[in-house]
């Protein structure tokens, strides 16, 4: 019996060191503020590490505005700062990339029974440490409610997405980003999501892969919401 327990402990130890400890983390907080039926603002903070909550090497701060054109179509304009550091150590300098970015985006939604599909088309203008660049992205995102028929407060859901990245320079197709996970909608204003993300980068001679544990905290606020008669506060 002791031998079995020892084998299990050894297996857990090696699994942690080879799988978990070498997996990076990808954490973000996204806040959307609804101004009216057509306009909304958003902010997002991202933090990434090369090891499991260690060797933090990247952060980004961004924000922008959304314009709803119809029930299933909207436009987004955004800008942000994107900072990449050396892959070992926490925010170790010199920086690998110091980038300012703007982008325009088209969002299209469709429903296939309970399955919700989101198509995202983005054109980016990037001012990087290596000069100015264009980049084009397409992401297909699928969400499926499990505990209810639609994604409303109190719903557990599954989520998966795949995003393709292209540039105007060889090798043109430069990145693929795949995600699979799940989430839960706590209230109309707060939900969270977690899962596994695999990012593959391509170059003219090689490709590299990196896996991340992904955690998202999502806040959806209404600028025009009012406290109820019981005196409870909104964000203030």
Topology:
Layout: H1 2-20, E1 24-34, E2 39-51, E3 54-68, E4 73-86, E5 92-112, E6 115-128, E7 131-145, E8 155-167, E9 173-185, E10 190-202, E11 207-222
Parallel strand pairs: 1-11
Antiparallel strand pairs: 1-2, 2-3, 3-4, 4-5, 5-6, 6-7, 7-8, 8-9, 9-10, 10-11
Strand segment count: 11
CATH-assigned fold name? Porin
The coarse overall form would be: globular
Number of helices: 1
What are the secondary-structure elements, in order, as H or E?
Answer: HEEEEEEEEEEE
* Total tally of structural domains: 1
Estimated helix fraction? under 10%
Level-2 CATH architecture: Beta Barrel
Assign the CATH class. Answer: Mainly Beta
Give the structural class.
mainly beta
Q: What profile does the largest beta sheet have? A: 11 strands, mixed, barrel
Distance between the termini: 60 Å
Q: Biggest sheet: strands side by side, in what order?
A: 1-2-3-4-5-6-7-8-9-10-11
Low-confidence stretches: 227-236
Task: Output the radius of gyration.
Answer: 20 Å
Query: What is the beta-strand fraction?
Result: over 45%
Overall pLDDT metric: 89
């Amino acid at each position: 019996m002791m031998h079995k327990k020892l084998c299990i402990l050894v297996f857990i130890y090696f699994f942690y060191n080879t799988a978990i400890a070498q997996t990076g983390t990808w954490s973000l907080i996204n806040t959307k503020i609804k101004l009216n039926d057509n306009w909304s603002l958003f902010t997002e903070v991202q933090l990434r590490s090369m090891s499991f909550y260690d060797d933090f090497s990247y952060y980004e701060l961004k924000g922008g505005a959304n314009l709803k054109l119809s029930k299933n179509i909207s436009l987004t304009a955004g800008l942000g700062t994107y900072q990449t550091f050396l892959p070992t150590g926490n925010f170790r300098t010199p920086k690998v990339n110091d980038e300012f970015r703007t982008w325009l985006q088209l969002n299209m939604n469709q429903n296939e029974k309970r399955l919700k599909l989101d198509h995202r088309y983005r054109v980016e203008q990037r001012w990087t440490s290596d000069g100015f660049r264009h980049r084009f992205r397409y992401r297909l995102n699928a969400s499926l409610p499990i505990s209810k028929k639609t994604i409303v407060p109190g719903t557990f859901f599954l989520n998966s997405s795949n995003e393709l990245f292209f540039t105007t320079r060889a090798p043109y197709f430069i990145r693929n980003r795949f995600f699979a996970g799940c989430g839960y909608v706590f209230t109309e204003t707060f939900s969270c999501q977690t899962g596994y993300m695999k990012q593959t980068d391509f170059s003219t001679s090689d490709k590299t892969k990196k896996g991340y544990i992904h955690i998202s905290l999502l806040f959806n606020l209404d600028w025009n919401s009012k406290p109820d008669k019981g005196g409870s506060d909104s964000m203030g």
